[in-house]
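User: My instructor asked us to take a sequence, write out its structure as tokens, and then describe one feature of it. I'm not sure where to start. Here is the sequence I was given:
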Amino acid sequence: MHQIERGILYEDSYLGVTVGALAYSHGVVFIDAPLRAEDARAWRSVVVNQRGGTNRLLISLDAHPDRTLGTRALECTIVSHQKTAQVFRNRPTIFKGQAAESGSVWETYNDAIGMRWASPDITFSQRMSLHWGGPEVILEHRPGPTPGSIWVEIPESRTIFVGDTIVLNQPPFLAQADLDAWLQNLETLRTSFHDYTIVSGRGGPAASEEVVSQQKVLKEIIEAMQGLFGKNSSSQATEELIPALLSNFKFPNELRDLYTKRLRYGLYQSFARRYRSVNTLGQPELADEES
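Assistant: Let's start with the prediction itself. The structure tokens for your sequence are:
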């Protein structure tokens, strides 16, 4: 467990995503959940024992299975954006392993199949404030990685949790991405939050240069897809882009296959959705609803 300042915590050692927590006098606000139920229970125990009240609340930064499969084990009220909640309405109660070649972390966890979802209890559309016995906590809709992506900002502490808006040393998830909105929000992060501690949803604190690096990667993806479209290529042709994109990241070689799958799946879906209304091949290309 790492402490940004008193009451603001994060942990980047669990399988799945980097999780956060705000331990205030009214209780604990969790930010995302570890993928494995046993990790979620361990995280809950560590944070609840920090200080403050016994109330618990969980904020889901988006609907990705890596950060939502373990929410039930935290045993608390769940808050998300309304578009994230809509995704849950279309999901079966028990996780069946949809999109099993998406390059998500849950695919490396054998016990993920059969886990039960916990759906959001409270939703909002644009902005929500929490007063939990400490500094004001602001939840704000920031689409990009998914339609329902949000950020959690603690202005008084100059700290912000941004989920998959930034991922460190790994390729981004593109299957549900709005790349233009994503770039716009990264620019907001670079200019308006440059003096904040920025906590990535995959990798922990991100330096300002890593915000710029994420922008460059997304711009490279857009330009490459535009080039393919200009040559009347199909969605399958996006696989040609993978080696060059992977060269942007430093990661252990054992993760290459997982990250290749992530880009293969995400690029295909993103290209199909971005250009489907003008598909010169006359073939329907529809993106799946989940990554």
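For the description part of your assignment, you could build on this observation: DSSP finds seven helices and 13 strands in the chain. Try explaining in your own words what that tells you about the chain.
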